[in-house]
Amino acid sequence: MSSRISQIASQLDPRSWSGKSLASHKVKHDDDVVIVATARTPFCKARKGGLKDTKFDLLCMQMFKSLLARSEIDPTLIQDVVVGNVHNDDSEYYIRAASLAAGIPNTSPTLLVNRFCSSGLMAIRTVANQIQAGEIDCGLAIGAESMTNHAGRPYSFSQELNAASQEAQDCSMPMGWTSENVAGQFNISRQKMDEYAARSHNRAAAAQAAGKFDAEIVPITVPDGQGGHKLVSADDGIRPSTSAQDLAKIRAAFPQWAPSHTTGGNASQITDGAAGVILMRRSLANKLGKKPIAKYVSCAVSGLEPRIMGIGPALAIPKLLEQTGVKKEEVDLFEINEAFASMYVYCVEKLGLDPEKVNVNGGACALGHPLGATGARLVVTILKELERRNQHVAVVSMCIGT
């Protein structure tokens, strides 16, 4: 490696940043990675909601077109298109076709990333990393998932893997099992899980009624299942009248696994949806006269035992704060995906977070969790809320299957 490349690599490695602090990250540099456009579709119940007749490729095309419209930039500026998706079949083909159909030129390649529930966030991270590395100046990142169209194929590991490692065997277990493991191992009560889930619905209902989601949602025209089309403009999974007392009446979703605290009411909904951002180098944004919405700073990922994968944010968030030199008290807002209330309760309490700073407009218990889309949706949602509050520092995190 030449000395010049070594110097650049050192500058890009967060571990080598000198004087790491929030103040240092607030300084504006031409090479900063900035977000210039954000958008999401409505999040709708899989198999029965507003997007149930919308195929994955159409969902992606609509998201691409919406971001281009909001950014008002020339599509030829997009140097890479990165999509987070988890389980839609042959999605590599569909995202390329959707990109071209949306008017993005064939000189802009596409890339699929899959890190389960963080795939949308990993799409953003991938584009940001390319800009930080000097490889591109502008890219489009989305997360999208049509859970209505999941094939639901069974899978199993080779006998050699299972014989070699209990943790390898654990990777084949359903996510509901991991939720019960968290509840049991860390003494998370059913009552507390229901209370957190009810708060999610109550906050989301209040945000929807106040029109807060209107700023982040782009209404999209989709098939209506009867040969025509319809406009979908709002999330349809929120239950405004939800209470912890009502949730307590719902039977356990996984009675085969103790303590059987997880239910259809205190876990994320199965949902269709997409969300995304356009990122570029600050110098390009300045040249184009685009006012940055936010600056991307850094990302941290942590591994842990698959059987309790839900507590991941409690490991990744401290790692990120250490990496950037930002203090927990300096963070204005947190978004932690509510995959299951058990993990959400654990992470908020373990990290000692102020509940009034976490998921202030509700989360996946109310809005749903389209696997590949959620990471991007959290970014879109939290940036809009920062803007409303005239605040500046946000952290997004989620647990990841296995």
Automatic annotation (TrEMBL):
Name of protein: Thiolase
